[in-house]
Here is the input.
Amino acid sequence: MSEDDLARLRAALEAATPAPDPGVRSGQLQRAAAAFAAHHQGTAGGARRNMQGLADGARRSGVLKMLDRLTSRAALAATASAAAVAAAAWFLILPHGDPRLEGPPSGRLPAADAVAPATLPAPPPAPSTATAGGEAESPPAPAPRPAIAPPGADARAAGAPATAEVAADATAVAPSATMPDPAYGAAAADGDRYATAAPNPVQVTAEAPVSTFSVDVDTASWAYVRRDLLAGSLPPAVAVRIEEMINYFPYGWPAPEAAAEGPFRTTVAVTPTPWNAHTRLVHIALKGRLPAIADRPALDLVFLIDTSGSMQGPDRLDLLKQGFRLMLSELRPEDRVAIVTYAGNAGEVLAPTPASERGTILAALDRLEAGGSTAGQAGLVQAYATARAMAGEGRIGRILLATDGDFNVGISDPEELKRHVARERESGIYLSVFGFGRGNLNDALMQALAQNGNGTAAYIDTLAEARKVLVDQLTGALFPIADDVKVQVEWNPAAVAEYRLIGYETRALARTDFANDRVDAGEIGAGHTVTAIYEIVPVGSPARMTEDLRYAPPVRVGEADELGFLRLRYKLPGEETSTLVERPIPTGTGEAGEDIRFSAAIAGFGQLLAGSTFLGDWGWADAIALADGARGADPFGWRAEAVTLMRLAESLAELR
Here is the structure.
């Protein structure tokens, strides 16, 4: 600030400061002295006597004498007068409309006249404007400013409860530290946090002909949907990931007949769309090879178990123990198991033990109890260290993390945890995640860990689901046959006007990621099936949703032999270079078999739950009829359960 600016400020302050009035000052001093005398006479003596009787009386007596001198009648009166003058000067220095003089919109701060003495000199009157009637009109009040919590407000408020109004204002202005990162999910009403992304839009083939994504064999979303429906409510849209609902069910896609065919076989089918007669569905399916039990490598499993306080309850740690007990019966004598737990800290509670020593392993499981905070990062570090120590030639190392996903000690940032798991992935150790419980479930973090740990994510809400994941489908969950599996489809603009991929929003990849072997993608286990469904709009179809651009180059339209071209990349376990698989997508439309019809019904069911706008008047009854007519053999009753859940969803939707 220059000397001229200082001079102008000094002149403005002198002009704005009222001249001292000896009469007013004398009156203030007298009133302050009288008020102090009235209060001090009734309270000061008692306070001194009480304090004198305490231990260490000499020290306290000295303090009292000091306070007594500081609070003499004359000193207190002088202090009050000085404070009044200082407050007046502060008020005048601040410009009109300064945010420090404005309370938040809710008016929680006390009014100015409740803080400053009534005898403070008033600020100069604000200029007024004359209305048409000649009456003075006050200048418009400054717009209310949002209440922004200062840095450290959360820590200062820790000792005192905040009002609901304060919390609402703070949340509206700036997300709190506990709000989930939008990049890692959205919170449902019950407090669970889900990995989610905006639904895939319709793409114009002439403008964006290439679609790329990672395979996904996770099944957690179907279990979330079932849990909520059986509890009497429709699931939140953020919990619906359609590809996981489709891939929850096994399908009879053909598998490789010989090892020379590779780890999986691809199936492509083009069929009518159930909800739109003018579009087509294109199924792209993979079926993994299932090696003989004798040919499967030995397993080194590390059970990484969350034993924090949030895991207490029959649907959490108790269910986890029951599920792992079921799994033990499926392991072979050459397999080994270690147990690492984490709460406030992490530790190994069972050293690597042959699966044949079932009693020792079960005893270690039975001793586990829930309590404490959640040092998940420390648990991961310990589990990876244990898995590395167990590693041996020709063996598969896998960590099975069982948690509600609530990491609150150590590293809890999803990005940092992703980087940590990605670094550990280079050692060849797989990480699979099993979620338990509700109301505190962090699905977003579970998905991030599993996707970056070359593993899968499942949600276990019942003992039947534990058996499905840990017994019936154990081979696929534990024995990988292909890593970093990527799918890329180039659509032919001469045959396909528009397309959209149904699901896989959280598995989307950039076009350049496809050929980049450093970019991670999903794994396929032994016997796994992976199904992806596109809805396409043929050229000339009345179902087209966009119009031609004025300046876009014309699209060559004519007889086309191919709807598009399919490319897949994968790595064999332990390899660093990917293998490319290619095949065309024919234009012909075939008849939809049971697997295609049932998967289409599940795709429609998921879109209904998510509130999709692409289904027209196709509704719950249509989805139920389509699924019910395509149940097939259904040896485990999973498809029958799906039909029951659809009927339940229909009833709940009518109650809205």
